[in-house]
C-alpha cells in the first residue's frame, strides 16, 4: 500500500473564475480511484466565444477514466459549480451527491436531458458521509450567497482534505446555515492534510460583511421610494431576494417575482425547506393592476443579460409592465468583470425613461459571497492544514493566495487547470500535467474551443467574408466570369467603383492570364484566387477579408 | 436682428462618453453661422463593432451646411476630442483652432491624410480670442489629465457661453495650468448665458484629488521595488508620466519610454514647451543592458490594448526586454468600463511570469481627470450661468447632472446627440432634432453604423455561415448536386454524419422535388434553398446559420 497516492487535479476553476471541476484520486499511480468535485459552466462573450451558448470544462481526461470514477459531489447550486451536470453527465455516468437544495437544482439540469432523478442522491450535512471507493466525503455547511453551500470533508487513507467550496464567514446569513467556527474547528482538530481553498476575494483587504448588514439600508431605500420599485440580484441569492421582498412588504408593497430563474430558485428553496417564511408574492397578472407605489418587482438580469427581465423592462415592456418617471430600479448586486457594457446599457435605458437607478457603487446594497483576505487568513488558521492549495481564481488570485498562505507559514503552491498534484507527503508535489481546455455548447452540439470553429467566426466578424465562385468546363476554361459575393464588407472602396465589380474585374484578368497548370489544379487555383481577392480588397478598402472559393468543374 | 438665435447641437458626446462633437450656431433660423467644438473618436469593441478601426460621429448634418461653418475649436488633445480631425477634416474644410500642444497633436492627425500644417492655427490662452463669424472664442485654461486643456469662452450677440471641455479643479496639476478660480470668476462676473459642462464624474460623491497627491505613494512603491519596475498610464497624461519618471529617477533608475504614443506625447510636450524638466530618458537599445533593479519602463497599454507595449511585455518579450519573477508592473490608471477583460488578461499573464502587479484598486496610484460631484457644484456656482447644459456623459450622467444643477437652482435640461437647443432666451428650448449616428472607419473606408455591414459580421460571428452553390443548365435542370461550404460551424451534428453531407443530401432531395416555377425563378429558388439549409442545420446542430446562395445558370 505504500505506493498509493493522493492526487488533486483541477480540470476547471483554477486559472479562471468559472466552470469549477476538481478531481481527487487515491490509489496506485494511474490506477487511482477518482471522485469529482463540482461540474460547472462559464459564460461566453463576443470577444472570445461569439455565438456559443455555454462553456464547460473539457473532461476528456476523466471520461477516458470513467471506470475509475466513483462519484461526483456538488458543493452548491451556482451555475459555475452545477451548470454542466446535465450536459456532461452521460459522459461520466457516476452518481451525483449533493445536499437537498443543490440536488433539486441538479435534478432540473438532468431532466433537460431526459435523465432520471435517481442519478442525484441527496445527502445530509456532516456528520453524514458518503463512501466512494477509498474516499469518505461529508458536506460541511458554510455560508455563501446561495442556500446550503458546503465545504467537503474528504477523508482518504492518506489523511483528511478539506475542500472549502465557495464560502464566506457569515454568522448571520439570513437563509441557510451560519458560518460555525466550532464545527469547522472540530472537523479540523485531528489534523488536516490539505485545505483546497476559494481564492476569489484574496485582493479585498478588509473583512467581509454579513448578508444581514444591508437589510436596513435596503429597507430605507424602499421606504423612501414613491413610484414602483424594481430590484434585481442574482436569482440564486435567496437570502438577498428575501431581504428585498421583506423590505417591500414592510413598505406596504405587494411583491412580484419576474424571470424564470428567480421563480425557480424560490420554488426550490421552499420545496427543500431552506426557506420557510418568504413574503407572499402576487402573480404577474395581478401585479399589473396594483398601483405602482404599492408594488415591488424582484427581477432577474443583474448582469445586464439581454433576455432577462431587467433588460426587457429596460427595452420598454415586460409582462405588461412598463416603468416610468419616478420609478426606482435597484441593482442589489455587483457587476462581474466583462458584463459592464450590458449593465451600463440598461442603466442608460432606464435613465431615458426617467427611472432612478441605484447600484452598489457606494457599497450599501450588496455584499460579496466570498471570503476576503482577512477571512482567508482566519480559515487557514482554523483548519490549520499541512498545505493550502488555492482554487477558484484566476492565476493572479491563486498566486496571491499562495503567497498569503506562505506568509502565514503554510506550505502552498499554485496548481492551475491540468496540474496534477501529489498530496501524499507533507508538501504538494507536481506529478503530472494533463491537457485541459474548454468545451463549447454551440446550439445543440458540443465543440472544442480549439477546433477552429469559433476562430473562423471571429475572423469573419473582424474581416468580413468574400465568396468567389468559378465554373470551368472540361477544357479548364472559365465558363463566364468569376462571381463574387460580399458579406460584412463596404460596398465601395477607394476607386469609388463597387467593390464587387473591382473584384470580379481583377479576377477575370487573373483568369485570362493564368497558365494551364494553375487552371487544372484546384488547390493552386484556389490559392491564387484568394490572394488576388485579398490584394484587391486591401487596396480598395484596406481590409483582408476571409475568402471562400468554390470551383465547379463541368464534366462532359 | 430680433429673429437671430443662438443654438447648441451635440452631434457626439452627449449620450455617450466619447466622440465629442458640439455645434454652436448664431443667426437667423436655418441660416445660423456655425462653429464646431471638438471632433473626437470613440473605440470599437467586439460586441457592437467587430473589425472596425475607429468610431466617429456622423457629421452629415454639418457637412451639408459646411458653407456656414466658420471654424473648428479643439479644447484638448485627447482622442475623444481631437481623434477624428484627420479623418473628417476634408468633409468640413474650416480652419481648426487650438492651443500649441493640442495643435501639435492635431497637425499630426492631419499629416496622416497629407493635409497641410496650416489648417491648424495655434491660439494663445485667454484673453486672446478668435473671431469666427458672429462668435468670438477664447481658450480658458483649466486643469485636466493632459496639458493645456481649456474651456472655451464663446461670446455671441446673444451673450456669453462657457463650454468647459473636460476639466477637474486641480490647483497643483504638475504639468500645465492650475485651476484658477479667480480667472474663471472674472470671465463669468458679467453674466454667462449658458454653461456647457462635463458630466463624467457626476456620480462620484467626494471632491476630486489633485494630480500632485499621488506622487509620494508612487515614489514609495518604486523605492521599495527590487526588480525591474514597469508602469503604464494614459500616454497623454504627461503629468503622470512625469511623476512616474521622477519616482524612478529618485530611486536611482534609468527611465525608458516604450510605445509610440508615450514617446509622441512627451515629444509634443517638450516641443511646445508645456514640459521642460522631464528626467533624462534612455533609448530602448540601451535599456536592455541596464541591470533590472536600475531600470524603470514607462509603457503604453493601460487599457490592455492588444498591440500596446504592456500587452507585448505580457506576451513575453518586447524590444528585447522580458519581465520575470520579482519585477513590478504598476497600472497608474483606471480601467475604462468595457476594457476589464483585456486588462485582467494582462494581469494574469504577468502573474504567470511571477511579476507583481499593482493597480489602483486601493485608490493610491491614480486620480481622475474629471470634476466630481462637489467640483461640479463649485463650477456651477463660480460661473453662475443662466442655464447649465450637461455634456460629455452617457444619458445617466446627463440626467444626474441636470438634476444636480436644478437642485441648486439652475435651469437645466438634457440634450442628447441630435437635440438642437435654442439658448437665446432665459431657458433652453428644444428647437429641433437632427438625425445623428456613428461613422465607422473600417480598414481605409468609412461606413455608416446602420449600413448593415457590421450587423452582417456580427451575425456571421453568432450564427456561422453556410454557402450553397448550384449550377443550372438552360433547361433549369441542376447540373450535379448542390454544393455546401461551412464556415464557423460544427462539422458533425446529432445524426453523427458530416453536416455538409446532411445539407447536400437534403438540398438534393429538395431540388428533386422542386417544381419548374421555383427552378426558373432565382429569388424563389434562393429563398427555398436558404430555408432548407436552415431547417437541416437547426435539426442537426441547433443553430440557424447565415446562408449565401449562388445560383449559376449556364446559357447555351
TrEMBL record, chains A, B:
GO molecular function, one term: RNA binding
Protein's UniProt name: Ribonuclease J 1
Organism superkingdom: Bacteria
Matching SMART domains: Lactamase_B (SM00849)
Record-listed E.C. numbers: 3.1.-.-
A Pfam cross-reference name: Lactamase_B
Transmembrane segments: none
UniProt domain Metallo-beta-lactamase: residue ranges: 18-218
InterPro entries recorded: Metallo-B-lactamas, RibonucZ/Hydroxyglut_hydro, RMMBL, RNase_J_2, RNase_J_b_CASP, RNase_J_C
Protein keywords: Exonuclease, Hydrolase, Metal-binding, Nuclease, RNA-binding, Zinc
Highest classification ranks of the organism: Bacteria, Pseudomonadati, Pseudomonadota, Alphaproteobacteria, Rhodobacterales
CDD domains reported in the protein's UniProt record: RNaseJ_MBL-fold
Amino acid at each position: 500500500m505504500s505506493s498509493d497516492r493522493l492526487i488533486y487535479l483541477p480540470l476547471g476553476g483554477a486559472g479562471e473564475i468559472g466552470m469549477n471541476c476538481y478531481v481527487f484520486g487515491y490509489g496506485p499511480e494511474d490506477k487511482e480511484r477518482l471522485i469529482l468535485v463540482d461540474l460547472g459552466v462559464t459564460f461566453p462573450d463576443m470577444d472570445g466565444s461569439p455565438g456559443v451558448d455555454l462553456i464547460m470544462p473539457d473532461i476528456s481526461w476523466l471520461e477516458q477514466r470513467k471506470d475509475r470514477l466513483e462519484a461526483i459531489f456538488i458543493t452548491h447550486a451556482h451555475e459555475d459549480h452545477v451548470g454542466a451536470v446535465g450536459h456532461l453527465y452521460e459522459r461520466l455516468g457516476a452518481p451525483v451527491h449533493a445536499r437537498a437544495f443543490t440536488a433539486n437544482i441538479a435534478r432540473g439540469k438532468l431532466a433537460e436531458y431526459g435523465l432520471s432523478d435517481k442519478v442525484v442522491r441527496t445527502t445530509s450535512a456532516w456528520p453524514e458521509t458518503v463512501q466512494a471507493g477509498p474516499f469518505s466525503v461529508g458536506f460541511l455547511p458554510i455560508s455563501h450567497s446561495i442556500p446550503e453551500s458546503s465545504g467537503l470533508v474528504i477523508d482518504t487513507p492518506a489523511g483528511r482534505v478539506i475542500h472549502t467550496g465557495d464560502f464566506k464567514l457569515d454568522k448571520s446569513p439570513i437563509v441557510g446555515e451560519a458560518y460555525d467556527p466550532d464545527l469547522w474547528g472540530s472537523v479540523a482538530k485531528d489534523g488536516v492534510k490539505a485545505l483546497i481553498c476559494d481564492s476569489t476575494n484574496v485582493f479585498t483587504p478588509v473583512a467581509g460583511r454579513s448578508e444581514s448588514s444591508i437589510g436596513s439600508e435596503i429597507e430605507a431605500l424602499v421606504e423612501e421610494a414613491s413610484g414602483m420599485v424594481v430590484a434585481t440580484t442574482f436569482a440564486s441569492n435567496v437570502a438577498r431576494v428575501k431581504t428585498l421582498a421583506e423590505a417591500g412588504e414592510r413598505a406596504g408593497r405587494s411583491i412580484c417575482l419576474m424571470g424564470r430563474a428567480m421563480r425557480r430558485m424560490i420554488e426550490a428553496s421552499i420545496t427543500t425547506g431552506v426557506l420557510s417564511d418568504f413574503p407572499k408574492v402576487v402573480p404577474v397578472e395581478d401585479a399589473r393592476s396594483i398601483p405602482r407605489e404599492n408594488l415591488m418587482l424582484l427581477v432577474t438580469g443583474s448582469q445586464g443579460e439581454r433576455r432577462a427581465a431587467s433588460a426587457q423592462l429596460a427595452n420598454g415592456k415586460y409582462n405588461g409592465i412598463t416603468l416610468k418617471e419616478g420609478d426606482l430600479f435597484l441593482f442589489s448586486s455587483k457587476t462581474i468583470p466583462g458584463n459592464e457594457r450590458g449593465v451600463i446599457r440598461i442603466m442608460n435605458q432606464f435613465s431615458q425613461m426617467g427611472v432612478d437607478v441605484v447600484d452598489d457603487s457606494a457599497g450599501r446594497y450588496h455584499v460579496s459571497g466570498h471570503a476576503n483576505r482577512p477571512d482567508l487568513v482566519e480559515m487557514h488558521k482554523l483548519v490549520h492544514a499541512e498545505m493550502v492549495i488555492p482554487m477558484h481564481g484566476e492565476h493572479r488570485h491563486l498566486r496571491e493566495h499562495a503567497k498569503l498562505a506562505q506568509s502565514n507559514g503554510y506550505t502552498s503552491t499554485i496548481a492551475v487547470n491540468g496540474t496534477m498534484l501529489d498530496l501524499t507527503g507533507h508538501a504538494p508535489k507536481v506529478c503530472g500535467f494533463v491537457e485541459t481546455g474548454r468545451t463549447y455548447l454551440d446550439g445543440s452540439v458540443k465543440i472544442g474551443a480549439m477546433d477552429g470553429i469559433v476562430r473562423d467566426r471571429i475572423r469573419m466578424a473582424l474581416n468580413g467574408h468574400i465568396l468567389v465562385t468559378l465554373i470551368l468546363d472540361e477544357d479548364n476554361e472559365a465558363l463566364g466570369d468569376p462571381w463574387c459575393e460580399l458579406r460584412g464588407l463596404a460596398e465601395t472602396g477607394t476607386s469609388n467603383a463597387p467593390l464587387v465589380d473591382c473584384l470580379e474585374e481583377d479576377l477575370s484578368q487573373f483568369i485570362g492570364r493564368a497558365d494551364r497548370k494553375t487552371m487544372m489544379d484546384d488547390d493552386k487555383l484556389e490559392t491564387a484566387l484568394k490572394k488576388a481577392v485579398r490584394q484587391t480588397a486591401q487596396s480598395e478598402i484596406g481590409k483582408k477579408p476571409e475568402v471562400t472559393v468554390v470551383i465547379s468543374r463541368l464534366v462532359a
